[in-house]
UniProtKB/TrEMBL annotation:
Residues 46-192 form the Poly(A) RNA polymerase mitochondrial-like central palm domain. It holds the Pfam family MTPAP-like_central. It comes from the Eukaryota. CDD domains: NT_PAP_TUTase (cd05402). This is Protein HESO1-like. The gene is LOC104783812. InterPro entries: MTPAP-like_central, NT_sf.
Length: 324
């Protein structure tokens, strides 16, 4: 009897997923016909996007400046904790800088890492660590070296924010954000498969920032969600431009193994010759077309490279932000 119930449940789940994918396909098809993107307009859009991309791409000096800032933050950690390998943490960059999807105005995300232990630090311990760094930063603020030091401890991921006066770069410092570091490294590796991924991410995030919809504190999409939505958009093209991420993780999720697998997929999406302009336009058309389906459990999964159905409490855009 239990086995029969399980079979019925699995059948319902499979039907639900297939049904929601059919709805997505139908909604997107109708939306594309309605908008009827003109090829001449796309040529103009390609030129505009290419100019925009080139205008805010970092130059080599921007890379060097951020690397030097991370180096200075590690020197600050030694001032706080001493030079003992056992007790002194390492500050490691992650986020858009590591993914190479940033501009010179982007925040620099840095995490304080203690050792190679896999156990999660208690929340209170993380707050104590951040407070020590905040105190040091406030002393540097008094010397005019940094400014706008703000502790945000009530957030889901507690951080200390500040602006480095020497570089004018805004920084967010967290503690033990190992998943974020790993995800950033993996996304950077995967972006080698097709350069449209990196370009489209930068352009969409720039658009989102300009329209005030790239701020998790305001209940809008954070940068990793936007990155995952762009990846999913490329995975669901016909033919697809990116493979399901699960295909790239068959030998494990550590960056060296993902790198080896990724090398086998370079130019994997070459059969799809869609321009950056068309991919940019259809990204927004696609999201608009499935707007009503979010309430029905629609979820974008980059791991499977598919639309899936997932129950949740709030009817917002649902993207599986973890790529692992």
């Amino acid at each position: 009897m239990d086995s029969q119930k399980l079979d019925v449940t699995e059948e319902k789940i499979a039907w639900s997923k297939e049904a929601i994918r059919k709805k997505v396909k139908n909604s997107e098809s109708i939306a594309l016909k309605r908008h009827n993107i003109d090829s001449y307009i796309l040529l103009d859009l390609d030129k505009i996007l290419d100019d925009a991309y080139c205008s805010f791409r970092p130059v080599p000096a921007d890379y060097d400046t951020r690397k030097e800032l991370v180096k200075n933050l590690n020197a600050m950690a030694i001032d706080i904790y001493g030079n003992s390998e056992e007790s002194s943490p390492v500050l490691e960059a992650y986020g858009s800088f590591v993914m190479d999807m940033y501009t010179s105005q982007s925040y620099l995300d840095v995490s304080i890492i203690f050792g190679n232990g896999t156990s999660e630090l208690p929340h209170e311990k993380k707050l104590q660590i951040l407070e020590r760094f905040a105190e040091k930063l406030r002393s540097l603020e008094g010397e005019g070296l940094v400014r706008n030091v703000v502790s945000i401890f009530a957030a889901r991921v507690p951080i200390v924010k500040f602006n480095d006066q020497g570089t004018a770069i805004d920084c967010d410092v967290s503690v033990e954000c190992k998943d974020g570091i790993l995800s950033s490294q993996i996304i950077r590796i995967i972006s080698q498969i097709d350069d449209r991924f990196q370009k489209l991410c930068l352009l969409v995030k720039r658009w989102a920032k300009a329209h005030g919809v790239n701020d998790a504190s305001l209940q809008t999409l954070n940068s990793i969600s936007i990155t995952m939505l762009v990846a999913h958009h490329l995975q669901t093209q016909n033919p697809p431009i990116l493979p399901p991420f699960s295909t790239l993780f068959k030998d494990g999720i550590d960056p060296p193994n993902v790198e080896k697998r990724t090398q086998k997929f370079l130019n994997w999406g070459g059969r799809n010759q869609e321009s950056l302009g068309k991919l940019f336009a259809t990204f927004f058309i696609k999201l608009q077309s499935v707007k009503v389906l979010w309430k029905q459990g629609l979820c974008a999964s980059v791991l499977k490279g598919l639309w899936i159905s997932k129950r949740r409490k709030r009817a917002l855009i649902n993207v599986k932000k973890s790529i692992l």
